[in-house]
Structure formats: structure tokens, C-alpha cells
Design brief:
By secondary structure, the protein is an all-alpha fold. It is 78% helix and 0% strand. The protein folds into two domains: 52 residues, no CATH class; 149 residues, no CATH class.
């Protein structure tokens, strides 16, 4: 369990590390491991560790990972379109991760409202980062992606807009759409949180955790 304890210590405040780490290890060794077996006990321990990661941190991390992958994909294949199939897969991954983040946040208290709040926070954080990486992609790869088929409508709107610069217009459109993007993240995250709340409520196995 050395690796798991090292991860735990990275996630909590320095002054709480010895106390929380010691209590959790004691609970694991004295109660969870003898009653559940090694595999189930390890799963329990990992879930306790994940519960120390805030929904905001989860959301930011998900956004950074997905946004970085998007930038890399654009650099490799700048003319590859964001097809509906690809977007559905990406959104499905985000929904799953938001649900897991909400479960981790709600496990200690099993409060339904805690799960919903966690989902909303994770959703907004992820969409904020993805919106920023989308703006970065526009500014870095504009000369290439402006020729993509999925940019036809935006270019047409630019031609009728009176803007002198496509770059300025594209940035303005992305910034103008930011409240909508964040709102979608909040709604979708809230739904994930509601699902997570139901999951934690129907869970019958006790999941004790050391108090922080």
C-alpha cells in the first residue's frame, strides 16, 4: 500500500497527512482487509483516496486532459472534422467521469445534494477549460482549420459580420458562447450528480472513512 499512501499524502494538507494516513491505514488493516479480502479492500482504499480530490480539481483535470488531446489531434490532423460520432464519444467520456467524481465526493456523507453540487462544479470546470483550449486551438491553427468543412458556417457568418479579421471574429464567437458552454456543463454535470446521488443512496455496503 506504499504507493496508495504516497498518493494520499499528495492530496491532503501537510498538517493532516500523518493523522489521516494513519487512521485510514488502521481502518484498512484492522477492519476492511480481514472482512473483505485483498481485492475488495484495495478497491475500498482507492475510493477513500479519490474522495479527497475535490470536484473542482477533477473537473479541471478532465478538461486539461481532453483539451490537450484535442490540441494534439488538431496538430496531427488539422483538417480532420469534429464529427458528431467523435463528439458523442467525448461527451460520453465526460459524463462518465463527472458521475464518478460526484460519487467520490458524495461517498463520505452520502448526501444527495453533495453529489449534485459536485457534478455541477466538475461540469463547469471541465467546460471552462475546454472552452479555453478551443480558443487556443483557433489562434494556433486558424490558417489550417479555417478550410475544414465544419467551419463553413462560421466563415459564412464572418463574411456577413463586417469584421475585418477572421481570427478576431472567431475569438468573439467563442467568447460570446462561453456562458452557454458553462451553462451546458452545469446542467449536464448536475444530471451526472443526480445519478451519482442515487447510486450512493442505494449502495448497501458501508464505506467507512477516516475523519479529516
Amino acid at each position: 500500500m506504499t504507493w496508495a499512501d504516497a498518493i494520499l499524502r499528495l492530496l491532503i494538507r501537510r498538517r493532516d497527512r500523518d493523522t489521516i494516513s494513519g487512521d485510514l491505514l488502521e481502518e484498512y488493516r484492522d477492519h476492511v482487509l480481514p472482512t473483505r479480502g485483498r481485492s475488495a479492500a484495495l478497491f475500498w482504499y482507492v475510493r477513500q483516496i479519490l474522495s479527497f480530490v475535490s470536484p473542482l480539481t477533477w473537473g479541471l483535470l478532465i478538461g486539461v486532459v481532453l483539451g490537450t488531446l484535442q490540441l494534439i489531434d488538431t496538430a496531427v490532423e488539422p483538417l480532420a472534422e469534429d464529427t458528431p460520432g467523435v463528439m458523442i464519444v467525448i461527451f460520453g467520456v465526460m459524463l462518465s467521469l463527472w458521475t464518478l467524481a460526484s460519487i467520490a465526493a458524495a461517498l463520505p456523507s452520502r448526501r444527495y445534494t453533495r453529489a449534485i453540487a459536485a457534478g455541477i462544479l466538475a461540469g463547469v470546470a471541465t467546460m471552462a477549460v475546454l472552452n479555453l483550449t478551443a480558443i487556443a486551438r483557433v489562434n494556433i491553427f486558424l490558417d489550417q482549420i479555417r478550410h475544414r468543412d465544419d467551419w463553413i458556417n462560421l466563415v459564412a457568418r464572418f463574411d456577413a459580420s463586417g469584421f475585418q479579421s477572421l481570427r478576431a471574429y472567431a475569438n468573439w464567437e467563442y467568447l460570446r458562447g462561453t456562458p452557454t458552454i458553462l451553462g451546458l456543463g452545469a446542467v449536464a454535470g448536475g444530471v451526472c450528480g443526480a445519478i451519482a446521488g442515487l447510486i450512493t443512496r442505494v449502495t448497501t455496503t458501508a464505506l467507512p472513512r477516516a475523519s479529516s
